[in-house]
């Protein structure tokens, strides 16, 4: 029923706005009191905030309109042309709670459009329960202005603060600047999640402002923000707070992938201030070394997931520090860390017995001996990627299969020494195997068929044209 109502709602919306032109925007504004609007330049292409909306659905310049309720409309359909024999649209019979469930599936920009239809839709579209999340996307979106207008409207009932907004996602909005983040920091004290991936115009100062003014912030994604080199409280916030809490930030999830300027000193500051971190992703932060990982382990002993993929200066000494996380570590990615060998993997295997996921792709120093230590030390391993490790052979896979019976995902892509014998042992012992990647491996057809017979739910990624 909900899906049917949702489809019907979209049909009605499209019938009401078959092609929104600049004239229709002007006429709509004459029906309401003056209100802030977000207008793109006429030469700009149409842009939409939700991934479910196609770029050909509308041709308007308006990205989002925040209006007061239409004063000239008291009935949902009054003021719009309709046949004499038509008494009202069928969607009008839906109760309010059904509308709210439908509106909950709409992206931010379409929810703003629904608020322009009639007074009832306006009141429903601005229901606080629908505005716990704001999602804006697009390369040419005036995202700073959009955030200012939206927060101003959401602060209407509670001046200067929006107590309902908990998540802001503006990933890919390259025009986001510090000004937009300042707006969020000042207006959204209850913010819990912020994603600004790919917004490379954001600097440290704006991030400091957000974490200082939003004490409940737990999830922060700043991947691709190349200007961000550190995360800390502002000096004013540190002075106002007590010494015991002045240096603490409640972030638990932090993604700094592709923050190329991050160095050991910055990671030291992050670890000292974000002591509650449980998920940390530092992919392609190429300036980090083993020293930065030492600081991380000292201040953040609760880390469960850690990625230092493509950090070429991380070596076995860094893994020795990571191993101090012991049983708390569940996920570790050291892909393409060329200085890692069996010695570092042995440290992890010895102390991190509850490890579930390991990505060691491209660690060419890893051999069967390291794989043996891993298999015996981490028997609960579920996912392992040892692709492009030329020194791993069938002997290592056999030890792995005899110890890690819960293995569900295995990649040995481009492992030149792996043949059908090792894979058959894996298939005969790991019945729950769901994904096997043997691309660019010299695996005979009989071995692939053997795997398929014993692991019926397993998806095999291969480059053998004879196997299908």
Structure description:
With 468 residues, the protein is of the alpha/beta class. Helix content is 34%, strand content 10%. Strands 3-4-5-6-7-8-9-10-11-12-13-14-15 form a 13-stranded parallel β-sheet, with no helix packed on it. A two-stranded antiparallel sheet has the order 1-2. It is globular, with a radius of gyration of 27 Å. Mean pLDDT is 82; it is low at 11-65 and 72-82.
Task: Spell out the blueprint of helices and strands.
Elements: H1 2-16, H2 22-30, E1 37-39, E2 62-65, H3 96-103, H4 108-114, H5 119-125, E3 133-135, H6 143-154, E4 167-169, H7 178-187, E5 193-195, H8 204-213, E6 219-221, H9 235-240, E7 253-255, H10 264-273, E8 279-281, H11 290-299, E9 305-307, H12 316-322, E10 331-333, H13 342-351, E11 357-359, H14 368-377, E12 383-385, H15 394-403, E13 409-411, H16 420-429, E14 435-437, H17 445-454, E15 459-461
Parallel strand pairs: 3-4, 4-5, 5-6, 6-7, 7-8, 8-9, 9-10, 10-11, 11-12, 12-13, 13-14, 14-15
Antiparallel strand pairs: 1-2
Helix pairs in contact: 1-3, 6-7, 7-8, 10-11, 11-12, 12-13, 13-14, 14-15, 15-16, 16-17
